[in-house]
């Protein structure tokens, strides 16, 4: 049986992450992939789609509702259980750490599900890494802006060149064992407090 | 602190008022005084709490009273042996319905007095009237299938002649979404802890029709669930935590601390809801909606009436309800697991050095106390009850077979 014959439902409120998962599943040869961002009306969707595997983000506050629905099996023809291979504690931990889990219909073999869960785990981790890097890039940009402003203040108030102003910031940071951006922020804050004096 | 704390304990909680005893233990220094660095993690679902207890991310957690039973009995997707050495309080829930349902109930004799039998009877007439007119069954929400909310809602309905599986539909909705789901018309009513009932009443979108404290007075709600292996490997840390929780619970019960407690729980890291919405659970003065107000004695008890004692009779009552509603088969093995899940022995040994009053028994006949009754060891005072069920039934944990046999669906 080819990998593509499994029907997979991805439930993730984060659209970007959901599309990353979807792309990963398609790359792996799964063509029957449905992505849902909103759990409103999910019971009907599940009846329509009849998924073999449901991949869900663990931050979804509706997990209790979904699990109850799977257990009651009113909405689904076959019982759905959380993918748990009790012999594979590492896999469970990796999934919870990454913030993702999978529910599978009864009778599906572990060998068919594990690659899907592994892919979801690695893509969730990649997404978290990406989000972290984006956050770092954003704060780097903020840092650069505040350093530029601090340099400007020093150049104006002490008649320094841009290089000399930067060198002064760097030297102060090294002496105080702090980051340049922190020194720059202190300077900008102080200059703001002393602002009216500048005009005198 | 981490350099000096003798014990590091990681705890999960859900944003509900009855996490207060755990939150206060961490935030007001009670844990630190017992040499504990208590790390609190807010979660988004009970399923996450269950998973993270099972795999060891959390050592202990704020849990629904029946949840550790469900975990230990293998009713949950990720099962783990979870024990209960401490209860986080008695009462605190309400049943809230939409304005449309309230009008239907009022037309059949319901009054804004929270009286369970009167409200339930009126609801039953309204439900049969709707059914006769060929209308859809009403949809009620609870927070989890293995919850006090699910069992007390079903108990109330069944005692009032309403079959909770046939005459209405019961769905699961996360607590913070209840009021929204009600105002959007996705559900017609719900049973949930505070502040999510007062929130709907204050918004004018729901009416509180009865409360847990009147359905079964001084009845169990949330507990501290502990992974059994962690408890066995860390007996000193667990005992220290139970003492910290005991002091925290006493602080939470003290009326002098209500303002500070409401302000603490209102913070974004905990409930993120206005202080004013936290007050009804503390005072028992409920605004029911539509201008009606009612004071409920023992509405929520975080400490008084031996509220923190993990009675085996509480666990066993939950067990009978699991059996009643088809979640579990009544077998000697299952009964033994349920009986071993709540651990008054651990509570007693941890608190013994404090010299406080402790119940002498591990279980009691529930519903037997008609008035407040002094009990407990000499020298220290302890008052239990009244603890009646609204329909006058009595649960004797020594007569479980008879109790289960006598339970009706409606």
TrEMBL record, chain A:
Keywords carried by this UniProt record: Coiled coil, Phosphoprotein
GO biological process, any: phosphorelay signal transduction system
GO molecular function term, any single one: RNA binding
4-aspartylphosphate found at: 57
Coiled-coil annotated spans: 124-151
InterPro entries named in the record: ANTAR, CheY-like_superfamily, Sig_transdc_resp-reg_antiterm, Sig_transdc_resp-reg_receiver, WH-like_DNA-bd_sf
Protein name: ANTAR domain-containing response regulator
Keyword Phosphoprotein part of the UniProt annotation: yes
From TrEMBL, chain B:
Domain of life: Bacteria
Pfam families according to UniProt: NMT1_2
Keywords: Cell inner membrane, Cell membrane, Membrane, Transport
GO cellular component: endomembrane system
Main location class: membrane
Location of the protein in the cell: Endomembrane system
Name of the protein this chain belongs to: Nitrate transporter
Species for this entry: Mesorhizobium tamadayense
